[in-house]
Amino acid sequence: MRAAIVGRGRWGQRVAGILESEGHAARMLSLRKAGEEKDTDFAERCARRLCAEASGAALVWLAVPPGAPQAALVRGALLAGKHVVVEKPWWGGAAEAADLASEANRRGLIAAVHFQYCYLHEWPALVSRFDAGDAEFQGTFTTARAARPDIPAGDNLATHLLAVRRRWFPRSRIGELHYGYGTDDCRHVEFRHDERTARVDFTTNAQPIVQRFLADVMGHAEVGAPFPLDLAFAAEVQSELARIEGSE
């Protein structure tokens, strides 16, 4: 498979390395919105660039920060006839997500959001025990890295936890969530249901979760099946985060 990666930063380079290690060809591009350029014009310009410089690519991976015009970049990839992966968090809102999802479906394409921790191998075995209305889902996602002024901790870290719950344990209730910058590196999820408990610690994780995500995207694309971690899913995660932080 050939892929185009939009974004030449550290994460874009890492994605390129992962793709190439899996035997895929990756081409890196830079697409930036100009001054007062309208989103529709930018999307069309992106589509033209992708058609001209990445005509053989089946997938466009948007390795750009959320402050970038995500929705216009997604639309540009779809207009170019490409499947597209966008990084979380999704700041485009539910209405924009629904519109882009409709466009993707109409074109037989996938617009996926990269929630890689949904691909830890521990989750499926726990579903039968903890995906229940009286089960409690708790989680911690903290990092020693300094705070990022462009992405609040909730959007950058808590969304990983909320995505895991929504994907695998949607009937559980949300308990305490801890997340933040500038503290210990700690990533784990805890479950409680009746007398049963479980804990998944992925602070140190060597599983090929990005590779599993990519394989899942392309597997769904090959058979034309809807992808579960789509833009609507990401918009629901953001709405859930807003409800949690609004109640604190």
From TrEMBL:
SUPFAM superfamilies: NAD(P)-binding Rossmann-fold domains. GO terms for molecular function: nucleotide binding. InterPro entries: Gfo/Idh/MocA-like_OxRdtase_N, NAD(P)-bd_dom_sf. Residues 2-114 form the Gfo/Idh/MocA-like oxidoreductase N-terminal domain. This is Gfo/Idh/MocA-like oxidoreductase N-terminal domain-containing protein.
